[in-house]
Write a structure and sequence with these properties.
The protein is mainly beta. Helices cover 7% and strands 50% of the residues.
Length: 113
Amino acid sequence: MKAFEIKKFSAEIKNRNEIKTGCCTDDVEPESVVKFATLEAALEELKKEKYKPTCVYMGGAVPFYRVTEYMVECYEENEDGEFVSGSDFDSVYDFAFDAETDEIKIEFDKRFA
């Protein structure tokens, strides 16, 4: 059966041009937040402010951006609720580089605006 789980992904990214939606999905230990029976319910929950992605510049000897994003992982699970196959990801937010302000903006995906 299908499962739709909100997970918190994090990454440390050195090149800000690499910051885009899904850039954190290589996180090998994402934090499980909550599971839903439908994609629609999961995406509706993901619209809440507490799930808005963050991107923080961390200066120092080796500067980087600490990026956190919440995404819905869609996958097949068995009757015990264990992962079987899949791992498609969806988000309601997009990262966008603003050349005018030289900053990274986080905006609602146009599908949900």
